[in-house]
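## retry 2 of 3
previous attempt timed out at serialization; input unchanged, resubmitting
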Amino acid sequence: MIRNTDKLKKFYQDLIRKENISHKEALAIYEAMHKEAVSLGIINSENILEGLEVDLRIARAINGLGP
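## retry succeeded, writing output
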């Protein structure tokens, strides 16, 4: 459970500022990760959004956002 959200927010802001990658670099990283996941059979590239609604409901429950 996160108790100090201000401290966490500052941590993420500092992290983003330090990493400072371009959109092109971020897209290349995403595409490489996607390709790896497909090759491992973790996701199916034909229907990548399958199961997303379930994942969102779980994330909302975990984060206390409700339905």
